[in-house]
């Protein structure tokens, strides 16, 4: 675990991977670590609004890397598998389109961290041999609700935006709503199942 100061009141902690980052963030929240915000990412956790960075570094020594974070609730996301890249993914995986749909729907994903846009969760769960490359040239507009893959990640676009992920289908689920608490439908730790419709 490497720590780096980010100004006088923030600390960036580097860990091995996204699961470790989520585990550290969950541990820090459970143990009341003094920070205004705790933000996990792909291999880091940002502690912002830290009154005493040195005390935080000392306190983090109690965290045990490898401790699994508690599993969150399961959220089912209905999907119409009609995406522009479904055939590409089938060819990349060496299977038929129906097999892609079946495997994607059978996978239990976990939201590791949020980023890119409000409500966009990076979902882990695909085996690394199922990783697919991003588009060479991103699309100017990916529709709201697009369910897509990039590398070994899965994600759902909460709003229409440019994007380079491979689109498998679409959902009408609302990924971000400021009237909810939390506003993100899939906060870190949420288990996610995609349900074909």
TrEMBL record:
Domain of life assignment: Bacteria
Keywords linked to the UniProt accession: ATP-binding, Hydrolase, Nucleotide-binding
Transmembrane stretches, start-end: none
Domain Carboxyltransferase intervals: 1-186
Molecular function terms from GO: hydrolase activity
A family per Pfam: CT_C_D
PANTHER family found in the cross-reference section: 5-OXOPROLINASE SUBUNIT B
Official protein name in the record: Allophanate hydrolase subunit 1
Protein source organism: Nocardioides taihuensis
The organism's taxonomic lineage, starting at the top: Bacteria, Bacillati, Actinomycetota, Actinomycetes, Propionibacteriales
């Amino acid at each position: 675990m490497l720590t780096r100061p980010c100004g006088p009141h923030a600390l960036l902690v580097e860990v091995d991977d996204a699961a470790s980052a989520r585990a550290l963030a969950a541990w820090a929240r459970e143990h009341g670590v003094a920070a205004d915000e705790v933000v996990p990412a792909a291999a880091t956790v940002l502690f912002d609004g830290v009154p005493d960075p040195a005390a935080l570094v000392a306190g983090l020594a109690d965290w045990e890397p490898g401790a699994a974070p508690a599993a969150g609730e399961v959220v089912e996301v209905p999907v119409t598998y009609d995406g522009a890249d479904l055939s590409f993914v089938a060819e990349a995986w060496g299977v038929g389109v129906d097999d892609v749909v079946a495997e994607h729907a059978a996978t239990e994903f976990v939201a590791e961290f949020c980023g890119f846009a409000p409500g966009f969760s990076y979902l882990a769960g695909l085996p690394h041999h199922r990783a697919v490359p991003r588009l060479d040239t991103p699309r100017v507009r990916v529709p709201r609700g697009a369910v897509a893959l990039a590398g070994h990640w899965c994600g759902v676009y909460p709003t229409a935006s440019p994007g380079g992920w491979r689109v498998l289908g679409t959902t009408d689920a609302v990924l971000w709503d400021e009237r909810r608490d939390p506003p993100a439908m899939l906060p870190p730790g949420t288990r996610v199942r995609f349900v074909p419709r």
